[in-house]
Here is the input.
Amino acid sequence: MTFKQPGAFIKHLIDNGLKRHRPVVGEGYFETHTLDLSDLKLRTSRFTPFMIPRQLSGRAMVTPAELRTVLADVTAMARSVSDEILVLVVGGVVDHEALSPREFGERGVVVLDKSDMDQIEAARSRDEKLNRLGVGLRRYLGLRALSPYVVSRPAVAGRFFGRSEFLDTILAGKEGANYTFIGNRRIGKTSLLREIKDRLKVKYLKEETFRFAEVYGANCGSTFDVIHAILSDLNPNAAGRLTRDMTLVKQFPRQIRDLSERENVEVAVFIDEVDYLLAFDEKQSFQLLHLLRSAFEHESCRIFFAGFRSAIAAANDVNHPLHNFTKMRILKCLGMEETNEMVTVPLTRLGIDVKDLPATVYRETGGHPELVQMVCERIVGIIAKTGKVPDATELLRQLFEEDFELRIFQTFIVNTDPYERLLCYLLVREATKSQVARDRFEFSESDARKLMTAQNVGVDSTWMRTIVKNLEVSSITKKVAGTARWKFAVPQLVRYCAERELDESIAVTRQDALSTPKETLLHWPKEHELSN
Here is the structure.
């Protein structure tokens, strides 16, 4: 029996599209290659070490006892590189059952042997090679540990889905350097900022010419807070020496430009929840935005904002300094193809055929990323418990539980104003009266206006059009193809609203609407109105 050269196998993976990050480390007992496994679309890192134990690499057979002798060393060494998983690659054949994969998997270690390499190399397509690699990882780590569906955490690397054309354009700088992403709560703005940051870090990793700073708007109450946070991230060693006076603020643009030019680095700043900054900055004649603009008009400096209502208002105002400073881009829910990718690709990598479930997931979630995460997490839970893929009926039965209901309702509440909520409640009441199934109930703009008029809520045709459009942009409703009619994008929202004292909800929301000035209502900008 012969063995396979582990180094040649790793080269095969790289030749088939897995990017190598960082130089190969050949010191001591191990040769370490760091590969990007994000294309697996599993819970893996962009920096996953593939470690070849020199003393075992040339053996035709590798025993469990021999692998256990290197387990402690390999985990200690790899933890300095990655806090997730590592892959131990040996050239001989391993008796995986005798090895007890769980013993290694609990430490985040996967063992790939000659049989794994042969199967991966024999696969004809890149996708099939990744599928076989995914099955090899699952043998040791299990389904849940590799599942990319983690609710309420930003999605990065293998856990980031969709937005591919969007990302390619931004990272290539084809439209300019600075961006503001506007979109609903829980639509994925934070994940997008993190993904852009990580991809820029990878791009400039070899040259080590990238500096970045992250600012969370809710933690800042003044211009100084923002400037101090940015400079502290860009130069942590000097953070303690930053003076707490206005000199720091005044010198900020020059400091950013000097940093880029003196150290020959690219600078990128990511500001999430920019609405908090806009709230105080408007009261001081946009001092902060003018400083940021002065600093980030430099060719080697980029800034990215993400926000909701105040940022949307800025996008609608051509005279707002944020509008003229950055490219505005609307972040919407995932489309059918993106949702299908999010459901199908990870589970296929793990050897699971989900059949017709992607269509069910899209129908029930409307492409809301967080809701898709929740549904897929439930699918994984069912498979891990029963060993079987649920059919659509079983999945829907599981989704009627309280946590999913609460998340759908919270998403609806945080993304609508009183006028939009009132219209939704009225439409829900109409849907429950009709003999049509929830997912088939439709309405027109005229129907919507009649319902609002009957509540003595004065909404002219222009405002009615805006309200209906807002619900569509928010993916609460969706256009019926080829018509001027809409339907609910998340059918279960109808049931959940109907079960929450609907008449009382209508009465309370009507009062909220009557006491809310129309000037404060959300108005999404049209795509052609955004900066070019």
The mean pLDDT is 86.
